[in-house]
Amino acid sequence: MFRLFRSSFAAVFMIAAASSLLFAQNATGVISGVVKDSSGGVLPGTTVKIVNEATSAGTDLVTNTDGTYSTEPLAPGTYRVEVSLDGFDTSTRRIVLAAGQRATNDVTLSPARFTQSVVVTARRVEELAQDVPIPVSVVRGDLVSDAGAFNVNRLKEMIPTVQFYTTNPRNSAINIRGLGAPFGLTNDGLEPGVGLYIDGVFYARPASATLDFLDVDQVEILRGPQGTLFGKNTTAGAINVTTRKPSFTPGTEFEANYGSFQFVQAKASITGPLSKHLAARISFSGTQRDGTVYNVKTQKYVNALNNLGVRAQILYAPSDRLAITLALDDTRQRPEGYTQVVAGVVPTLRPANRQYAAIAAGLKYAPPSFNAFERRTDIDTPLRSNQDLGGASLNIDLKLGPGRLTSTTAWRYWNWDPSSDRDFLGLPITTISAAPSTQRQWTQEVRYAEDVSRTLNFVAGAFFFNQSLDSDPTFKQEQGSAAAPFLLAPSTAASTPGLLDGYGYNQAVRYRNTSAAVFGQLQWSVTGRLRLLPGLRLNYDKKDVDFNQQTYGGLQTTNPTLLALQRSVLAPQAYKANIDDTNLSGQITAAFKIIDSANVYATYATGFKSVGLNLNGLPTDANNNPVLSVATVKPEDVRNYEAGLKTTPFRGVTANVAFFDTEIKDFQTQVTNGAVGVIRGYLANAGKVRVRGVEFDGNARVKGNLSVYAAVAYTDGRYVTFADAPPPLEETGGPQSKDVSGSVLPGISRWALSVGGEASRHASFAGRSGELFAAVDAAYRSSFSSSPSYSTYLIVPAYPLLNARVGFRVATGWTLSVWSRNLLNRDYFDLLTAAAGNTGLYVGQPGDPRTVGITLRLTLRST
Residue 1: pLDDT above 50? Predict the structure, then answer.
């Protein structure tokens, strides 16, 4: 196997070595201009990047105090001129420079907004988003800040095809088009189908998505399989976050937010040169907010926010051929959270004495409210969601021969220390539920990109990933004195005093995951309008687990009937499993430029999500031994068909549409477990699922002072075949599995919409000339299933959200704004979940109520 990797890797670089040489040309032209804002003021300190589109050679300039710039003499040819400044949309133009010409390129920058007319790295090289033959949405960093989208959860309101679900940081999942991770399941033995990348580094733990963004430049959301261009395999898409880099122009930024629920957020960033070839940037973010759910038992609010993060970067750039960036980051989260609140009770197929009403009456218990939007709970287990996440990365970008070599080396850690109340009630049912763990990962990615000729270029690379995840020291669950009525059928034996009181397990888990891959993609310009883009990926995965669960406590007895009852809830279990697997996947894309302002493309791609391992326990056989044959979960086999049209019908206007049809065989999901000894379900494969739909996104700028955007997605996701799914909540007590073939997939809204815009006008405030602005962002999701198997009762109703802000900004100084999130104060759920014990009780996670606040942002630059 590794011989094959060595051969493939050697072939990649033989191609690079054999590619055509560059021929120097006489530098006989100059590009110059002045950069202003929309009010006519000049913008010093603006970055101007000049890129030769034939050779990919680039030059970075900074405008002078009068806003002007001018290049050194350049060879004749076509150049891309990118003009960027924090707080403004990047301006990108193509200029054909003739010999002896002095080309003038004056630029007026407009305030940054949602746009797709930007440069992206979706295909691991810099290019215009409208030229990329894949569906990609881009959110600029300043809109991320303005809209309050300081993590992935907030970002989903701006991109309709992104779904993010979290009941705590460990139990988080990012999905795109409804695919990526099984809905409502925590199992570290599965890998995410949506890759989260920050500055080229793959973040293996979905918990990373709950932390604050730090100093974001832009966020790219790529939809569909991306395995031929990204290091870690991504079957459903990727979120590619780019942070602001160190600058040789000194600058300082500070932002402070204050709002409802004592929301306080501070961000700061400082950058500048350390020497002629060294520059640095250090960024900080801190967020605190009181909880939104009131615990009547402790008389405290829970589900709070408490995040601190810092990121430091050092850039070494001795020439335009070499850039080396060392980055260090650390994030600390210490909230008192998270819990869900009682949302309702449904009838089940169990006998009346096994249903919630009878059990609660027998215990003389009533929750503080059955109205989830009163946001009241009485949970009796302390809440803790402590995590530390960080690491170091070294990125080397080298112009090597006729192409560019990029190497990204990274080490990351994740420490998780939780405490949850998994019964969500003020009863001692599950008194301890904690899965403290540590994760370490190493990644190494190497890519080489080259324009072989004017008609042929390629990107090729290799990737290595090593991950360890260990319980620290053990996962722990313990039952209380009220556990028996909820978990056992009524009987004389089940009523034995103290039977389950203090009965629990210590679960030791050791998990290792190693993968390696070679990948690459070509682009062949068959004609001036037609391009073909084939790509391949060869991937190897090796995983092993050592699982040991031992029970303790409860009634100490030798009575076989009582022992059997205890073990029907929790049972000792130990097993080891390992597996390795090799996969070959690829894609072919045809892109055709109909006219200069319209591109059409079609893609057929295969993909896979690697083999999984059950880390939460296995079903047992008649002799109470774990069934090792289900310790492993087969890899997903993905087939994706995509077609799209990208247009720029008018200057400042883009309108794009994409159609997709994705089929997945051996879909990794959760199945029910009727065997004694495992309280929860376990991982397995559903036969096939299909997700198909259409997406539209567009944006426009009207007269320079009005910008609007819209994105709409229609998505239909269904199980094609799934014969042994867990029954829905209302069918608990009947057959222990159900054929749900043809039913909808969980977590997918058929319709999702994001619209927004900003209007501005020149004005004066506090003696400063600037812009008065007003902006709105609206999002809508239709109803969706919130259960692995469709349940009539676990349907999250449709809801709209409206956010708004008004303020004043000075182009190179400060911004002051007042904002509101959920302005209409709509009641909505993020998700609904069946409570433990399947008694008919279900709980929900209400979305945040209306919040209001104020933001002050300062920007200082030197030239």
Answer: no
SS3 per residue for 196-249? EEECCEECCCHHHHHCCCCCEEEEEEEECCCCCCCCCCCCCEEEEEEECCCCCC
Q: Give the mean model confidence (pLDDT) for residues 230-238.
A: 86
How does pLDDT run across 24-33, given as a tens digit for each residue? 334 578 999 9
DSSP 384-441: EEEEEEEEEEEEEEEEETTEEEEEEEEEEEEEEEEE--TT-SSSSSEEEEE--EEEEE
**How far is it, in rounded angstroms, from Cα 225 to Cα 235?**
4
Unique residue bearing structure tokens 């290792």 = 512
Residue 47 CA, chain-centre distance (Å), reads 29
Of 310, 168, 154, 177, which Cα lies nearest the Cα of 238? 177
Q: Is the predicted pLDDT of residue 2 greater than 70, yes or no?
A: no
Pairing mode of beta strands 682-702, 706-721: antiparallel
> Under a CB-based contact definition with an 8 Å cutoff, are residues 337 and 385 in contact?
yes
Collapse the DSSP code of 762 into the 3-class scheme (helix H, G, I; strand E, B; otherwise coil) and give the result. strand
Burial class (CB in 10 A: 0-12, 13-18, 19+), 849: middle
Q: Residue 742's closest CA among 793, 688, 672?
A: 688
| Sequence-separated (6 or more) residues with CB below 8 Å from residue 6 | none
Give the separation between CA 799 and CA 674, rounded to whole angstroms. Answer: 36
Taking the model in full, what pTM does it have? Answer: 0.85
Q: Which two tokens stand for residue 624?
A: 């109470």
Radius of gyration of the chain (CA): 28
Over residues 718-746, mean pLDDT: 92
Distance separating alpha carbons of residues 282 and 275, to the nearest angstrom? 16
Q: Among residues 666, 556, 572, 561, which one has the least CA distance to residue 618? A: 572
Instruction: Supply the DSSP string of 560-598, one letter for each residue.
Output: HHHHHHHHHH---EEEEEEEEEEEEEEEEEEEEEEETTE
Residues 6+ apart with CB under 8 A from 713: 160, 161, 177, 693, 694, 695, 696, 751, 752, 753
* pLDDT of res. 116: 42
Average pLDDT estimate for 603-632:
83
Of 671 and 190, the structure prediction assigns the larger pLDDT to 190
Task: Calculate ∠ Cα 494-499-503, nearest 5°.
Answer: 130
Question: Could you give phi then psi for residue 686, rounded to 5 degrees?
Answer: -80, 150
Structure tokens at 96: 């054909």
CA–CA distance, 401 with 406 (Å, rounded to integer): 13
- How would residue 812 be classed by pLDDT, with cut points 50, 70 and 90? low
The mean pLDDT of 797-822, rounded to a whole number, is 91
- Burial level of 98, CB count in 10 A (0-12/13-18/19+)? exposed
Q: CA nearest 75: which of 153, 22, 135, 129?
A: 22
Q: What is the H or E stretch that residue 859 is in?
A: strand 851-861
Q: Which residues contact 571 (CB under 8 A, 6 or more apart)?
A: 549, 551, 620, 624, 676, 677, 678
∠ CA(847), CA(850), CA(855), 5° rounding? Answer: 115
Check if the beta carbon of residue 714 is closer than 8 Å to that of residue 780. no
Q: Are 17 and 9 in contact (CB under 8 A)?
A: no
